[in-house]
Amino acid sequence: MKVISLQSALLAIAFVAAGHAVAGNRSTAPRGGGGSKVEFCEDCHGLSGQGYRGYLTMPRLAGQQPEYIENQLRNFAERSRDRDIFINMSRVHGLSPEMRSAVAAHFRGLDPAPVGGGPRNLVATGQKIFEEGIPEANVPACSACHGPDAKGQATIPRLAGQLYPYTVKQLSGWSKERGQAAAKDDTTAVMTSISHNLTAPQIDAIAAYLSYLR
Amino acid sequence: MKARIMRLIGLTMAVLAIVSCAGASSAGDVESASRNCTWCHGTLGHGYTIAPRLAGQRHEYIMDQLYDFRTHARDNPFSQQYMWGATANLGPQTARDLAAYFSTLPPTPANDGDRALAEIGREIFLEGIPEYDIASCAACHGPNAEGIGQIPRLGGLSYSYLKRRLAQWGEGYHVAAEPPMPRIASRLAPNEIAALASYLSFIQ
After folding, report:
1. What is the fold, at CATH topology level, of the domain defined by A120-212?
2. Chain B: residue nearest A94 by CA?
3. Neighbours of A91 (CB within 10 A)
């Protein structure tokens, strides 16, 4: 842990040097962070990485697979994810590769209770789809890749405890935001056809189930 | 002359804050209760001098603030001077009704910021200043600063109110406000606060 925080401190210094101050004329030293980008992430994603619903829904990062977080940060930086949103996602997620691994390691270790929020009456249907898939619609069991507890593995993300509106939005518009860099080994492209085979009520059910899963 | 007018306004507000302590206690009294608010916040809730605009504000946010005034969690000087007394006898039902009423009034922008700073303010609003760990304001407050749920509408509030509110977090006021605002605002430099407040004051 000590090694990580020292590393983060050094990286934060590097980050400040690499960036440009938008407003200039800053008379005082930066007062933020205490040497790590973790606080910066927490300000949107929640103090325990539990996710937060603002105008945008900021996804849960707690317990997420580090490799997945690093890949997504790289996708943002290379503008192969969320290009068309009103915020410059490349800039607000613009961490150096070393900082990416430091924050990914931090959120990996957090385990807050899920925020929940999905309709309770959909949970049972969602669980069934998650565990068995929908063979007649060519939808494999989610658990086959994401694991029986939806904890993910390596580049495959943890889904357990993810915020309901976030999962719904991702599965509803996969190809608008994700899988845009298939040529560059972007494994999120795998989900394109699966998400297209799901109906809106099925997506709602899966998202509801995951929103409560610890 | 200006100082005398300010003193007079201050005195009037103090008196009105005391009057409004009487507060309404049932849903039927909302109209008279709202009159106590509009003495300072303006007939259509458009704000007046130090009293911020309430028109179009998110009703959950108004309720949260009324609760914070009542419990003294929101503790900056004007809150202590005017709003602690005004909310001392405010019941939850009246608070809900007042919040619902003001949230439905149409907001108009104050337009009183510095035009020259608006573009810088816009950039900070949309993207934050990642180098200084300042998150994007728009991620939570929305692309037009319209707010949502408990998150307030900022677009069109007055320059002086926005500037004071943002600065006061850095001065240690209202630290019990829901995260992450106290932390983010306390990282903003004065010129960045002026730019943000300017930009926001012009938003329709």
Report:
1. Cytochrome Bc1 Complex; Chain D, domain 2 (1.10.760)
2. B130
3. 18
CA–chain centroid gap for B152, Å, is 8
The pLDDT > 90 percentage for chain B reads 82
Nearest to A60 by CA among A202, A168, A164: A164
**Predicted confidence (pLDDT) per residue in A149-160, tens digit:** 999 999 999 999
Set of chain B residues whose Cβ sits within 8 Å of the Cβ of A14: none
Last residue of a domain, one of B49, B75, B104: B104
- Which residue, among A16, A43, A56, would best test binding to B if mutated, counting the most B CBs under 10 Å from its CB? A43
What is this model's ipTM?
A: 0.84
pTM of the shown model: 0.85
pLDDT digits over A45-80, tens only?
Answer: 999 999 999 999 999 999 999 999 999 999 999 888
The beta-carbon neighbor of A40 closest among B120, B130, B140 is: B130
Which chain A residue's Cα is nearest to B184? A43
Return d(Cα B42, Cα B94) in angstroms, integer: 19
